[in-house]
Amino acid sequence: MKKIAVVGAHSGIGREILSFLADENFPAANVTALESRSVMGNMVSYGEEDELDVLSLDNFDFKGFDAVIFAAADEVSKKYAPHALSAGAKVVDCSKAFFGNPDVPMIIAGMNNDKLQAAVKGMASVPAAGVTQLLLPLQNVWKDFPVKRIVVSDYTATSVYGKEGMDELFNQTRRIFMNDTLADDQQVFHKQIAFNVIPHVGDFIGEETAEEWAYNAEIKQILGGDVKVHANCAVIPAFIGCAQYANIEFSAEVDVEEIRKRMSKTEGVVVFDKHVDGGYVTLNDVQGETSVYISRLRQDASVENGISFWCVADSLRAGVAKNALAVARLLTSCGK
What is the CATH number of domain 132-315? Predict the structure, then answer.
């Protein structure tokens, strides 16, 4: 991959993709930052010393780009991804714009790379941050031990609502310490988020929320439609990251020590599980990290073949940006 464009350069995910590229010393001259609407003089940081001009998508020519990563809203991907494809670029979409399209497989790099064969148009998507975080530790497990059922409780940071969500947490926290009213400072969340937990992520779709629906639909798309999924999602008063308690039921007998060994050998997964006070990883420990961390791994005695574990990750970096960049590299190297 010689030349790459990042659409949504000012989004949390877009910034992290640029950060990964800068950390790898990818030449700034070969990286283009884009936004759906951008005025002249708009810039974004690239590493510690460089800055990139943020160009407007309107009438942008994608010709000559190897890969374009869309870290923007659904409507932006729907409108501009076809232009990138028609110019010959490979496309990775981080939104839900093409979910269910058989020509746009959903990929977790290293887990289901074989699905890239379905990317006949040169386009793939990546799942939500929490789905990648949950499934990556099962990368060396699920094919030998088929998953029957997943129950996950997801505690996600306010970054799931972008900068506006993080700003509201900050402002509310400050106002509480200043003994000020919160009456006019609940724009993103319909309940107080500071020092609170809100059992609602995304719009309601019937009885479940959009985030809970995403867990169900995206896990089935990656593991297969037979797996049963139940997700409970809440927003917590943190800025970045996602924490999960997961219960995994398998269709055959499993040994938790065998699972532990396989998880420990999975690239991008760190098992830190000591049965003492503080012998686990928390959300504050993973800010800026690129791995998924597993603790509290144990047998789930409530079902016949089950395990449970605690899982934390930086949702922007480890959950989406790292995977999107890896999928872009896979697409540009597989000749699709």
Answer: 3.30.360.10
